[in-house]
Amino acid sequence: MSAVRTVLGDVRPGDLGVCDAHDHLFFGSPRLPGQELRSGAAARAELTAFREQGGGAVVQWTPYGLGRRAADLPALSRETGVHLVAATGLHQAALYDEDTLARLRGRLAEVFVAELTDGIGTSGVRAGLVKVAGGFHALDAHARWTLAAAAEAHHATGAPIAVHLELGTGVLDVLDVLCGRFEVPPHRVVLGHLNRSPDLVTHRQAAESGCHLAFDGPSRAHHATDWRMPEAVRALADAGFGDRLLLGADTTTAAARSVNGGPGMPYLLRRVRPRLVEAVGEELVRRILTENPGRAFGTEWRR
């Protein structure tokens, strides 16, 4: 039976409620010094604010080595009443030091599988997806290594694979590797940041493959992509791909949290949802937020 693997155990896909399909409660990147998401109190406040807007679930895409704080997630889920999904995986090479990458050589898929089945570190919290990353319009050797390990972990466990697309690019290269070379079923792949490159032709090609497409996070630099996002969602819905669409807030810095004056998780429901209702109608937006995440992150777990 299909299930979504949350930090409190497996749940039925239909029990997620309104879902933020791509976000971060804890995260730290060397590209964003001084803006780390480290505060447990701030994470709790952000989840509470999301819950007050009607939110029911958050999929945290923070992978290995970037401050996941997996041991803190179960208590946050219980205290706020929000389902949480944790991630294993590996981001781009620039986010890690050489010692970290050296320790993972030859055993990356093994680490992913262990975190999906046994738990992350000593926390006992099992990851519910593998998060990896592509590059800007291309795939370097690191990206191909991590995609290969993610595919191996999928075939061992059934886990869904979520992919950070750098500025929304490299879509077809990622699918060629994951679904072509490594034969991952497309419906087990979630492509992130499609909103950052509003190429409607590529979006449609990706949707035709059978994968899920995530539109996640207000822009910090390319503001034209924000007002074009409803157009992209409408184009995919009109083409019959409304069941492949996901929405997320992708909060990656402390300043971006709503409790610090930024948009944060609540913005997804407070502003993005009504804007999309205007574009594609209330019923489709309801399904994008409540039904599609269960299909994307629910799977027949093998281990």
Strand content: 15-25%
CATH topology, anyone? TIM Barrel
| CATH domain class | Alpha Beta
What is the CATH superfamily classification?
Metal-dependent hydrolases
Q: SSE order, as H and E?
A: EEEHEHEEHHEHEHEHEHEHHH
Tally of separate domains = 1
| Helix segment tally | 11
Structural class: alpha/beta
* Mean of residue pLDDT values: 96
Q: In the CATH hierarchy, what is the architecture at level 2? A: Alpha-Beta Barrel
Uncertain ranges: none
Radius of gyration: 17 Å
Number of strands: 11
Largest sheet, spatial ordering of strands: 6-7-8-9-10-11
C-alpha end-to-end distance = 13 Å
Protein name: Phosphotriesterase
InterPro entries: Metal_Hydrolase (IPR032466), Phosphotriesterase (IPR001559)
Organism: Streptomyces levis
Family: Belongs to the metallo-dependent hydrolases superfamily. Phosphotriesterase family.
What features would you highlight for this structure?
single chain; 303 residues; alpha/beta; TIM Barrel; six-stranded parallel beta sheet; three-stranded parallel beta sheet; 11 helices; 11 strands; 40% helix; globular
Report what the structure shows.
This protein has 11 helices and 11 strands. With 303 residues, it is an alpha/beta fold. Strands 6-7-8-9-10-11 form a 6-stranded parallel sheet. A 3-stranded parallel sheet has the order 3-4-5. Strands 1-2 form a two-stranded antiparallel sheet. The protein is globular and about 50 Å long. The mean pLDDT is 96. It has one domain (4-297): TIM Barrel, CATH 3.20.20. Helices cover 40% and strands 15% of the residues.
